[in-house]
Amino acid sequence: xxxxxxxxxxxxxxxxxxxxxxxxxxxxxxxxxxxxxxxxxxxxxxxxxxxxxxxxxxxxxxxxxxxxxxxxxxxxxxxxxxxxxxxxxxxxxxxxxxxxxxxxxxxxxxxxxxxxxxxxxxxxxxxxxxxxxxxxxxxxxxxxxxxxxxxxxxxxxxxxxxxxxxxxxxxxxxxxxxxxxxxxxxxxxxxxxxxxxxxxxxxxxxxxxxxxxxxxxxxxxxxxxxxxxxxxxxxxxxxxxxxxxxxxxxxxxxxxxxxxxxxxxxxxxxxxxxxxxxxxxxxxxxxxxxxxxxxxxxxxxxxxxxxxxxxxxxxxxxxxxxxxxxxxxxxxxxxxxxxxxxxxxxxxxxxxxxxxxxxxxxxxxxxxxxxxxxxxxxxxxxxxxxxxxxxxxxxxxxxxxxxxxxxxxxxxxxxxxxxxxxxxxxxxxxxx
Length: 432
What we know:
By secondary structure, the protein is of the alpha/beta class. The chain has three domains: 35-156, Nitrogenase molybdenum iron protein domain (Rossmann fold), CATH 3.40.50; 183-290, Nitrogenase molybdenum iron protein domain (Rossmann fold); 294-431, Rossmann fold (3-Layer(aba) Sandwich), CATH 3.40.50.1980. It is built from 18 helices and 15 strands. It has helices at 39-45, 57-67, 84-87, 93-107, 120-124, 129-140, 160-169, 192-205, 238-246, 259-273, 278-297, 300-303, 317-328, 342-351, 364-374, 383-391, 401-404, 413-431, and strands spanning 2-6, 22-27, 49-55, 77-81, 113-118, 145-150, 183-187, 210-213, 228-232, 250-251, 307-310, 331-337, 357-362, 378-381, 396-398. Strands 1-2-13-12-11-14-15 form a seven-stranded mixed β-sheet, with helices on both faces. It has a four-stranded parallel β-sheet with strand order 4-3-5-6. Helix 16 links the parallel strand 14 (378-381) and strand 15 (396-398).
């Protein structure tokens, strides 16, 4: 089923006239990873946490394949595999889960936070992981906190695993006092090197207190309350943003920090909230802007004028399309995204060129037909579509690599552009 709608129809009173842009809404067969994939980058971020998936052997194979884990590695994630006896109700799944957790903690006593991650199988048999988390937290308190969230891919896309995880983490944050000093919270899992870069920039700009969510240690979850102002580092954190706002925190609308333009706009949103002098702000960000622009210029010759088609996969598509179009001169054929949250993406949508096709959701066969008819120079898509399209002579870029790589900020702008330039360079070499 495919329906062409006006975004304004989704809200009675749109804030901006630009939302008259039509959107092709699709409801049909989808091609996407599940939210369990988010564990691959989340387990690296929260260094004293462990992610225990309650699922099938397929779940275990998916995560191990995505992470590239070798048999001798000691990652901070695992799968409690549900056997036929569990699925048939012949065994007490809660007793089995308690036994697995006890064995895990005996082997890994350094764990301070345990995430029980639901999967399609555990949700199908209605295993109540919320109650299990409460029971296990009480049993192992105060040494261990147990939290649950769903990584099931039945109705979600793969980046929503991070959103579900962070939304579940919000209630664990202390409540900031109503009269607490105003603080900035950066929301979204970022590589440590990127987090350190942003921390230095905010300090130079003149914002004294900056916390990151999730933190590197579960014991360092910052207090959240009415004095909290937060910037989203990722466009797929809608549920987390709602939970933070329910706590009284205030979202700072901004472009997302991809490329020179996006990073400048993102930092400027915080600077404006703290009433930082504009001359001082411009002086602080100027070196980073120049580094980013020089890095981007190296990739412009191969990307400029190339036609780009983005399949819906990660929800990063609108900000990436803005970056590639405005800073590298790519021509946008279609920008697809699994969900179009206009509250989070309003500024990104305004920055897209007029006339670009926006699509929400997916009917994969129809979208493939549009892609084949357009014959774009580069297609950004999931792994399941990449090989078939490559076999048809269409150059592709794996969308999942965009969440595994450091791509935010001034100093990663060139690396982000290189992810898109590399497939085109490869294709050019193959044609020689």
